[in-house]
Amino acid sequence: MNYFRNITTALIFTTISGFMSSQIRPLDAMLSNYQYPFEVHFMDFKSQDNQLKMAYMDVKPQKSNGKTIMLLHGKNFNGAYWERTAKDLASKGFRVIIPDQIGFGKSSKPHQYQFSFSQLAENTKAVLDELHIDKTIVLGHSMGGMVATRFTLLYPEKVEKLILENPIGLEDYKTFASYQTIDQAYQLELKNTSETYKNYQLKFYYDNKWKEEYQPWLDLIAGWTLHKDYPQVAWDAALTSDMIYNQPVCYEFKNIKTPTLLIIGTRDRTAIGKDRAPKELQSKMGQYQELGKKTQLEIKGSKLVELENVGHLPHIEVYPQFFNALYDFIK
Protein backbone atom coordinates (compact mmCIF):
# COMPACT_ATOMS: atom_id res chain seq x y z
CA MET A 1 0.00 0.00 0.00
CA ASN A 2 2.62 2.56 -1.10
CA TYR A 3 -0.15 5.11 -1.61
CA PHE A 4 -0.62 5.42 2.14
CA ARG A 5 2.96 5.32 3.46
CA ASN A 6 3.65 9.02 3.24
CA ILE A 7 1.11 9.90 5.90
CA THR A 8 1.17 6.81 8.10
CA THR A 9 3.94 7.97 10.44
CA ALA A 10 2.35 11.37 10.99
CA LEU A 11 -1.00 9.74 11.61
CA ILE A 12 0.43 7.48 14.31
CA PHE A 13 1.98 10.43 16.15
CA THR A 14 -1.18 12.50 15.98
CA THR A 15 -3.26 9.71 17.49
CA ILE A 16 -0.89 8.27 20.07
CA SER A 17 -1.76 10.83 22.76
CA GLY A 18 -5.43 10.00 22.39
CA PHE A 19 -4.62 6.31 22.68
CA MET A 20 -2.67 6.78 25.91
CA SER A 21 -5.58 8.61 27.54
CA SER A 22 -8.39 6.39 26.30
CA GLN A 23 -6.63 2.99 26.27
CA ILE A 24 -8.56 2.04 23.14
CA ARG A 25 -6.77 -0.84 21.44
CA PRO A 26 -5.32 -0.23 17.95
CA LEU A 27 -7.08 -2.35 15.34
CA ASP A 28 -5.73 -3.32 11.93
CA ALA A 29 -7.65 -2.92 8.68
CA MET A 30 -9.07 -6.45 8.76
CA LEU A 31 -9.83 -6.43 12.51
CA SER A 32 -7.69 -9.56 12.75
CA ASN A 33 -7.00 -8.85 16.42
CA TYR A 34 -10.69 -8.39 17.28
CA GLN A 35 -12.90 -11.40 17.98
CA TYR A 36 -16.45 -11.33 16.64
CA PRO A 37 -19.29 -12.86 18.70
CA PHE A 38 -19.73 -15.80 16.30
CA GLU A 39 -17.45 -17.80 14.03
CA VAL A 40 -16.35 -15.79 11.00
CA HIS A 41 -16.28 -17.31 7.51
CA PHE A 42 -14.73 -15.78 4.40
CA MET A 43 -15.92 -15.87 0.81
CA ASP A 44 -13.01 -15.47 -1.63
CA PHE A 45 -14.00 -13.89 -4.94
CA LYS A 46 -12.78 -11.63 -7.71
CA SER A 47 -14.48 -8.30 -8.31
CA GLN A 48 -13.34 -5.37 -10.46
CA ASP A 49 -9.95 -7.04 -10.93
CA ASN A 50 -9.49 -7.34 -7.14
CA GLN A 51 -9.06 -10.59 -5.24
CA LEU A 52 -11.30 -9.99 -2.23
CA LYS A 53 -12.38 -11.62 1.00
CA MET A 54 -15.90 -10.98 2.28
CA ALA A 55 -16.43 -11.90 5.92
CA TYR A 56 -19.72 -13.17 7.24
CA MET A 57 -21.18 -14.93 10.26
CA ASP A 58 -23.66 -17.78 9.88
CA VAL A 59 -25.58 -18.30 13.12
CA LYS A 60 -27.62 -21.49 13.08
CA PRO A 61 -30.47 -22.14 15.54
CA GLN A 62 -30.68 -25.26 17.68
CA LYS A 63 -34.23 -25.81 16.46
CA SER A 64 -34.89 -24.32 13.03
CA ASN A 65 -38.17 -22.70 12.00
CA GLY A 66 -37.05 -22.99 8.37
CA LYS A 67 -36.51 -19.25 7.91
CA THR A 68 -33.35 -17.22 7.30
CA ILE A 69 -32.76 -13.56 8.09
CA MET A 70 -29.84 -11.47 6.86
CA LEU A 71 -28.64 -8.48 8.92
CA LEU A 72 -26.88 -5.62 7.08
CA HIS A 73 -24.73 -3.17 9.04
CA GLY A 74 -24.40 0.61 8.81
CA LYS A 75 -21.47 2.71 7.62
CA ASN A 76 -19.83 3.30 11.01
CA PHE A 77 -20.28 -0.31 12.06
CA ASN A 78 -19.76 -3.95 11.15
CA GLY A 79 -21.61 -7.19 11.74
CA ALA A 80 -20.50 -7.50 15.38
CA TYR A 81 -23.09 -5.03 16.67
CA TRP A 82 -25.87 -7.45 15.70
CA GLU A 83 -24.76 -9.90 18.44
CA ARG A 84 -27.80 -9.57 20.72
CA THR A 85 -30.22 -9.47 17.80
CA ALA A 86 -28.69 -12.57 16.25
CA LYS A 87 -28.75 -14.54 19.50
CA ASP A 88 -32.42 -13.76 20.07
CA LEU A 89 -33.38 -14.51 16.47
CA ALA A 90 -31.53 -17.84 16.62
CA SER A 91 -33.33 -18.69 19.85
CA LYS A 92 -36.59 -18.19 17.91
CA GLY A 93 -35.46 -20.65 15.23
CA PHE A 94 -34.05 -18.29 12.58
CA ARG A 95 -30.81 -18.91 10.75
CA VAL A 96 -28.98 -15.56 10.83
CA ILE A 97 -26.52 -14.43 8.14
CA ILE A 98 -24.41 -11.36 9.00
CA PRO A 99 -22.04 -10.13 6.27
CA ASP A 100 -19.41 -7.43 6.50
CA GLN A 101 -19.58 -5.45 3.28
CA ILE A 102 -16.41 -4.97 1.25
CA GLY A 103 -14.65 -1.96 2.76
CA PHE A 104 -15.96 -2.68 6.26
CA GLY A 105 -15.26 -4.83 9.30
CA LYS A 106 -13.20 -7.94 8.59
CA SER A 107 -13.73 -7.76 4.82
CA SER A 108 -11.17 -6.54 2.28
CA LYS A 109 -10.40 -2.82 1.97
CA PRO A 110 -9.55 -2.39 -1.74
CA HIS A 111 -7.94 0.85 -2.90
CA GLN A 112 -9.24 0.77 -6.47
CA TYR A 113 -12.90 -0.15 -6.28
CA GLN A 114 -16.01 1.45 -7.70
CA PHE A 115 -18.35 1.27 -4.75
CA SER A 116 -22.02 1.14 -5.62
CA PHE A 117 -25.08 -0.18 -3.85
CA SER A 118 -25.65 -2.48 -6.81
CA GLN A 119 -22.15 -3.92 -6.41
CA LEU A 120 -22.61 -4.40 -2.66
CA ALA A 121 -25.96 -6.07 -3.32
CA GLU A 122 -24.34 -8.41 -5.85
CA ASN A 123 -21.56 -9.26 -3.38
CA THR A 124 -24.18 -9.97 -0.74
CA LYS A 125 -26.14 -12.20 -3.09
CA ALA A 126 -22.91 -14.13 -3.75
CA VAL A 127 -22.71 -14.97 -0.04
CA LEU A 128 -26.27 -16.32 -0.10
CA ASP A 129 -25.51 -18.29 -3.27
CA GLU A 130 -22.43 -19.81 -1.67
CA LEU A 131 -24.60 -20.91 1.25
CA HIS A 132 -27.37 -22.17 -1.10
CA ILE A 133 -29.94 -19.84 0.47
CA ASP A 134 -32.72 -19.10 -2.00
CA LYS A 135 -34.90 -16.81 0.11
CA THR A 136 -34.30 -14.65 3.15
CA ILE A 137 -35.74 -11.90 5.30
CA VAL A 138 -33.53 -8.79 5.01
CA LEU A 139 -32.92 -6.27 7.79
CA GLY A 140 -30.79 -3.21 7.07
CA HIS A 141 -29.73 -0.47 9.48
CA SER A 142 -28.46 2.98 8.45
CA MET A 143 -26.34 2.53 5.29
CA GLY A 144 -27.36 -1.13 5.46
CA GLY A 145 -30.88 0.09 4.75
CA MET A 146 -29.70 1.49 1.43
CA VAL A 147 -27.96 -1.81 0.63
CA ALA A 148 -31.09 -3.72 1.66
CA THR A 149 -33.27 -1.50 -0.53
CA ARG A 150 -31.05 -2.00 -3.58
CA PHE A 151 -30.81 -5.75 -2.87
CA THR A 152 -34.61 -6.01 -2.71
CA LEU A 153 -35.05 -4.05 -5.93
CA LEU A 154 -32.47 -6.16 -7.78
CA TYR A 155 -33.41 -9.56 -6.36
CA PRO A 156 -37.04 -9.38 -5.21
CA GLU A 157 -37.43 -13.15 -5.65
CA LYS A 158 -34.88 -13.66 -2.88
CA VAL A 159 -36.50 -11.39 -0.29
CA GLU A 160 -39.36 -12.70 1.82
CA LYS A 161 -39.68 -9.54 3.94
CA LEU A 162 -37.74 -6.27 4.23
CA ILE A 163 -37.05 -4.37 7.45
CA LEU A 164 -35.45 -0.92 7.41
CA GLU A 165 -34.15 0.33 10.76
CA ASN A 166 -33.41 4.06 10.69
CA PRO A 167 -32.02 3.78 7.16
CA ILE A 168 -30.14 6.66 5.67
CA GLY A 169 -31.09 7.62 2.14
CA LEU A 170 -34.71 8.46 2.91
CA GLU A 171 -33.96 11.78 1.19
CA ASP A 172 -31.64 12.88 -1.61
CA TYR A 173 -28.69 14.57 0.10
CA LYS A 174 -27.59 16.14 -3.21
CA THR A 175 -30.63 18.41 -3.10
CA PHE A 176 -29.40 19.93 0.17
CA ALA A 177 -25.61 19.65 0.43
CA SER A 178 -22.81 20.67 -1.92
CA TYR A 179 -20.53 18.06 -3.46
CA GLN A 180 -17.37 16.96 -1.68
CA THR A 181 -14.59 15.30 -3.66
CA ILE A 182 -13.28 11.92 -2.56
CA ASP A 183 -9.91 13.53 -1.82
CA GLN A 184 -11.60 16.08 0.45
CA ALA A 185 -13.59 13.35 2.17
CA TYR A 186 -10.41 11.32 2.67
CA GLN A 187 -8.62 14.20 4.37
CA LEU A 188 -11.56 14.62 6.73
CA GLU A 189 -11.63 10.90 7.49
CA LEU A 190 -7.94 11.05 8.44
CA LYS A 191 -8.79 13.59 11.14
CA ASN A 192 -11.16 11.23 12.95
CA THR A 193 -10.33 10.25 16.51
CA SER A 194 -12.11 8.52 19.36
CA GLU A 195 -13.33 11.93 20.51
CA THR A 196 -14.72 13.04 17.16
CA TYR A 197 -16.50 9.71 16.71
CA LYS A 198 -17.93 9.87 20.22
CA ASN A 199 -19.14 13.44 19.79
CA TYR A 200 -20.88 12.46 16.54
CA GLN A 201 -22.54 9.45 18.14
CA LEU A 202 -23.65 11.46 21.17
CA LYS A 203 -25.27 14.03 18.90
CA PHE A 204 -27.05 11.74 16.46
CA TYR A 205 -27.38 8.39 18.21
CA TYR A 206 -27.77 8.91 21.92
CA ASP A 207 -28.99 12.47 22.61
CA ASN A 208 -25.84 13.37 24.59
CA LYS A 209 -26.40 10.54 27.06
CA TRP A 210 -23.54 8.04 27.06
CA LYS A 211 -23.95 4.54 28.51
CA GLU A 212 -21.37 1.85 29.06
CA GLU A 213 -23.03 -0.50 26.56
CA TYR A 214 -22.34 1.99 23.75
CA GLN A 215 -18.55 1.86 24.23
CA PRO A 216 -17.75 -1.37 22.31
CA TRP A 217 -19.19 0.04 19.07
CA LEU A 218 -17.18 3.23 19.49
CA ASP A 219 -13.98 1.28 20.29
CA LEU A 220 -14.23 -0.70 17.05
CA ILE A 221 -14.00 2.31 14.74
CA ALA A 222 -11.84 4.41 17.09
CA GLY A 223 -9.30 1.59 17.33
CA TRP A 224 -8.74 1.84 13.59
CA THR A 225 -7.55 5.45 13.94
CA LEU A 226 -4.67 4.29 16.17
CA HIS A 227 -3.25 1.74 13.74
CA LYS A 228 -0.84 2.22 10.83
CA ASP A 229 -3.53 0.71 8.55
CA TYR A 230 -5.91 3.58 9.18
CA PRO A 231 -5.22 5.42 5.87
CA GLN A 232 -6.39 2.27 4.08
CA VAL A 233 -9.62 2.22 6.09
CA ALA A 234 -10.11 5.98 5.73
CA TRP A 235 -9.80 5.77 1.93
CA ASP A 236 -12.62 3.23 1.67
CA ALA A 237 -14.67 5.32 4.10
CA ALA A 238 -14.29 8.26 1.73
CA LEU A 239 -15.31 6.11 -1.25
CA THR A 240 -18.43 4.85 0.52
CA SER A 241 -19.40 8.37 1.63
CA ASP A 242 -19.30 9.36 -2.03
CA MET A 243 -21.49 6.35 -2.87
CA ILE A 244 -24.11 7.38 -0.31
CA TYR A 245 -24.19 10.97 -1.53
CA ASN A 246 -24.34 10.16 -5.24
CA GLN A 247 -26.59 7.08 -5.29
CA PRO A 248 -29.94 7.88 -3.63
CA VAL A 249 -32.51 5.12 -3.29
CA CYS A 250 -35.43 7.29 -2.15
CA TYR A 251 -36.84 7.70 -5.66
CA GLU A 252 -37.32 3.94 -5.98
CA PHE A 253 -39.16 3.09 -2.79
CA LYS A 254 -42.35 3.13 -4.85
CA ASN A 255 -41.04 0.13 -6.79
CA ILE A 256 -40.73 -2.13 -3.75
CA LYS A 257 -43.43 -4.81 -3.72
CA THR A 258 -41.97 -6.86 -0.85
CA PRO A 259 -43.73 -6.72 2.57
CA THR A 260 -41.81 -3.99 4.39
CA LEU A 261 -41.46 -2.76 7.96
CA LEU A 262 -39.92 0.60 8.88
CA ILE A 263 -38.56 0.88 12.43
CA ILE A 264 -37.85 4.56 12.98
CA GLY A 265 -36.35 6.28 16.00
CA THR A 266 -37.94 9.71 15.66
CA ARG A 267 -35.18 11.67 17.45
CA ASP A 268 -32.69 10.76 14.71
CA ARG A 269 -31.32 13.66 12.68
CA THR A 270 -28.65 11.82 10.68
CA ALA A 271 -28.06 13.34 7.23
CA ILE A 272 -25.04 12.99 4.98
CA GLY A 273 -23.36 16.30 4.15
CA LYS A 274 -25.40 18.36 6.60
CA ASP A 275 -22.34 20.46 7.42
CA ARG A 276 -22.02 21.34 3.71
CA ALA A 277 -25.62 22.49 3.31
CA PRO A 278 -26.74 26.13 3.61
CA LYS A 279 -27.64 26.93 7.21
CA GLU A 280 -31.26 27.54 6.30
CA LEU A 281 -31.49 23.96 4.95
CA GLN A 282 -29.56 22.11 7.65
CA SER A 283 -32.49 22.01 10.06
CA LYS A 284 -34.66 20.45 7.34
CA MET A 285 -32.35 17.46 6.83
CA GLY A 286 -32.64 14.14 8.63
CA GLN A 287 -36.10 14.79 10.06
CA TYR A 288 -36.88 11.13 10.72
CA GLN A 289 -40.21 11.80 12.41
CA GLU A 290 -41.33 13.07 8.98
CA LEU A 291 -39.20 10.88 6.72
CA GLY A 292 -40.54 7.66 8.23
CA LYS A 293 -44.12 8.62 7.43
CA LYS A 294 -43.19 9.82 3.95
CA THR A 295 -41.39 6.57 3.15
CA GLN A 296 -44.26 4.45 4.43
CA LEU A 297 -46.52 6.18 1.90
CA GLU A 298 -43.98 5.50 -0.86
CA ILE A 299 -43.72 1.75 -0.11
CA LYS A 300 -47.18 0.42 -0.78
CA GLY A 301 -48.57 -1.68 2.06
CA SER A 302 -45.60 -1.07 4.35
CA LYS A 303 -45.84 -0.87 8.12
CA LEU A 304 -44.29 1.89 10.24
CA VAL A 305 -43.25 1.53 13.88
CA GLU A 306 -42.13 4.84 15.34
CA LEU A 307 -40.02 4.80 18.49
CA GLU A 308 -40.47 8.14 20.20
CA ASN A 309 -37.39 9.94 21.54
CA VAL A 310 -35.07 7.29 20.09
CA GLY A 311 -32.06 8.08 17.90
CA HIS A 312 -30.22 6.41 15.06
CA LEU A 313 -29.55 3.06 16.79
CA PRO A 314 -32.76 1.55 18.14
CA HIS A 315 -31.28 -1.97 18.38
CA ILE A 316 -28.64 -0.59 20.75
CA GLU A 317 -30.47 2.23 22.52
CA VAL A 318 -33.87 0.59 23.14
CA TYR A 319 -33.30 -3.04 22.24
CA PRO A 320 -36.52 -4.55 23.72
CA GLN A 321 -38.72 -2.14 21.77
CA PHE A 322 -36.74 -2.77 18.62
CA PHE A 323 -36.83 -6.54 18.90
CA ASN A 324 -40.53 -6.67 19.72
CA ALA A 325 -41.31 -4.67 16.57
CA LEU A 326 -39.00 -6.86 14.48
CA TYR A 327 -40.27 -10.19 15.79
CA ASP A 328 -43.94 -9.22 15.51
CA PHE A 329 -43.33 -8.61 11.80
CA ILE A 330 -41.39 -11.77 10.97
CA LYS A 331 -42.77 -14.46 13.28
From TrEMBL:
Chain coiled-coil ranges: none
Q: So which domain of life are we looking at?
A: Bacteria
Q: Among the record's GO biological process terms, what is one? A: acylglycerol catabolic process
Q: Which residues form the AB hydrolase-1 domain?
A: 68-216
User: One Pfam family this chain carries?
Assistant: Abhydrolase_1
**SUPFAM superfamilies, per database record:** alpha/beta-Hydrolases
Q: Which GO terms describe its molecular function?
A: monoacylglycerol lipase activity
Q: Which GO terms describe its cellular component?
A: membrane
Supply the PANTHER family for this chain.
Answer: HYDROLASE, PUTATIVE (AFU_ORTHOLOGUE AFUA_2G14860)-RELATED, MONOACYLGLYCEROL LIPASE
Q: What is this protein called?
A: Pimeloyl-ACP methyl ester carboxylesterase
Organism (species): Chryseobacterium ureilyticum
